[in-house]
Amino acid sequence: MPEETPKPPTVLVRRARKMHRILADTYPDAGCELDFENPYQLLVATVLSAQTTDRRVNAVTPTLFAQYPDATALAAADREHVEDVVRTTGFFRAKTNSLLRMSAAIVENFDGDVPGRLDDLVTLPGVGRKTANVVLGNAFDVPGITVDTHFARLVRRFEWIDDATAKDAVRTEHAVGALFPKSDWTMLSHRLIWHGRRRCHARKPACGACPLARTCPAFGTGPTDPEVAAKLVTTQGRA
Question: Which of 84, 95, 119, 148 is catalytic?
Fold first, then answer.
């Protein structure tokens, strides 16, 4: 951590934790929406998930993992074949390059096993803190906060962070982490991401159908009429 995160005001901590409890009740099934069976699979799937939907990634990874079941196999893969398999996820050339370089680094530096430490994961080509925290939290049970676009949007709307903090993902991660027990970090990330995908949309949030309406300072950003807002709610979030 580059600098010590200031202790947040008690009133903010209480409001943030209350909102999290409401989200926990609202999304009891919240979790990672990428299909995986081990750290390697989750790491690959997370890299592929950039700029596309989890549903699309889940459609291609069974084929990819059948052909390349571990980092050693993927590191030795034919580039054109990998590009062909992941083509529909978008930016397939750049993603293939990341996967091949990442796998080679895992083989060379970690004996073929995905490392379970943040400091090690972020040394891998194409792996930043967001991807590392996804892998740590869901494959290694190491608490982590995943600052994706949904998470960043919601914590700003909720006024858990200020504008200056919101400009930096690492500062956002630490500031939000200071509001909650470390044991909550992974599920907090899932619940906010689910809420962002299902109700608190970027352009038109479903404010009138939101369980956080009474506590959210951004209430009114979207339609407040319950019937209008209800039409904006998506019940399926693999997107």
Answer: 148
